[in-house]
Amino acid sequence: MNSKAKRYTSNIIDIVTLIISMIIGAILRIVGYDWGGYGIHQPDEIWMVQPAVEMAAAKKFTYNTFYYPAQSFAKINAFIILVHRKLTGTSISLDHADQYYVCRITTAIAGVLTIAIVFLIGNYLFKHWGTICALLLAISPQMIIISKQVTGDINVCLCGALTMFLALKYSEAQKKIYMFLMAFVAAFATMEKYHGGATTILIALFILLYSKSFKDFFIRGLETISAYLISIILISPNIIKEGPLVLVNNFFDIAKYKNIDQKPPYINNLIDYVQCGYMHIGGILYILAMLGGIIVIFKLKDKRFLVIILGVIKVAILCLLNRAFLRWGLELYLMEIMLIALFFAYIFSKRSTVFSFISAAFGLIIATELLLASVFVTECARRTEQDVCSVQAKYCNENGITTDNAGSTFYTAFELGGFVHNEEHAVWWELDDALTVRDGETYKIMDVDYLICASRAFWNGQMERYNLKDLCIYKATVDYPDIFFLPTNGIIHSYNDLFLCKNYLEGINKLRNGAITGAYDIYIFDLRNVKYINQ
Fold first, then answer.
1. In a 3-state reduction of DSSP, which class is residue 273?
2. What does the domain layout of the chain look like in residue ranges?
């Protein structure tokens, strides 16, 4: 099939299904946007929210720190924050959770827009493919989890999907306008998060596939690179002065290794990214449908289907870095959804009654699995009163424990997320700024009556080192991880899709009956009878 093959035109059923999918997707992404309460428990969000807040406060759209680099959607969020202040009178400050909520809602909207773009991509190439894509993407738990966090990854995924669609438009007649639009979108993605630059490889691939000669490829390549660099400068003019040094200090800190002999954890990273696609999400039917989609692509022999290879490109690059964050690889999970949808679209196109009926049954199981997982995730997000920090705060209020008489580690009600709020009584993970041991006896070196610890503080044996077990007066145990720590990790995984559906349903019921969510278990220790020494 050549690049000018007939395009499928969506019918009324496709359009109605898209609208329904976007409504469902919006509900699942926006409900629970205030997870974590007014403390905000996601420590990485500040790197995306702070640029928006500071630009809004200064009433200018330049920001001289390029950490993520958070230079694209932060400008949009800054404008919305200004409008929000005018409408509500809320002051602009990182101390207000409202600023986080504004950014979370715009992130959710980006997730919903991705549904529409994927609909266009799929229905561009195969009958009803985009329609099924939209329906499955609307209820994709991975996408819903990340759509509830201001990390920039959903925004980059939206840019990736838009680049894929523009690549298809470029394949029709190789018009340079689409080439330049792809360059701008890629620049926008790069200036949101550095890994968004992976979209440039997809652009290069499509320019190569549709070039008439090497000379044509070379000229178009130079034009695209120029457009890409110019777009970056247009998005953030201050990068000319501020950017180069920041790139070295921040981006390469993630990419580099501690010593020259250190080997990239390529295989381990790859396993992490691949497993997140189906582990705790889908079972064997999910995997088989995905493999079926790959077979369909080989059968159709249409090079335009290579647009979905962006997920492979992205993860191949990410695996070279010295760390892996599963949210960085969203395009891989987008590709999985698209492969599953293509398999079912192809089967239904054959109009074989028996085979279509069996496939429909399998598809219904997969859709039910995804929907239940997404409802479970949304339940975790919206039940802020059941967050472990909220539970701990209630206990403290009832028992006279305050920030004045207690020291606290991070991820507790008094030190939410990963940032210091009460410098005088903040306790680091080793606990050695609050406690010491002399001649086998524990002493406190912070003059407090109580010590509140997240369980992360005990990874290196601090519970035993400071003899804390007998001092514990309260423990709040997390039943399911919060949004930041991926709620689906709390579900017992199985390759049996029906068993997974049962597990998700049980999780939903437990949450509705008071199950606790959060990052870490929280312990409270009574130090009133522990001797204090002033070091």
1. helix
2. 12-382, 385-478+516-526
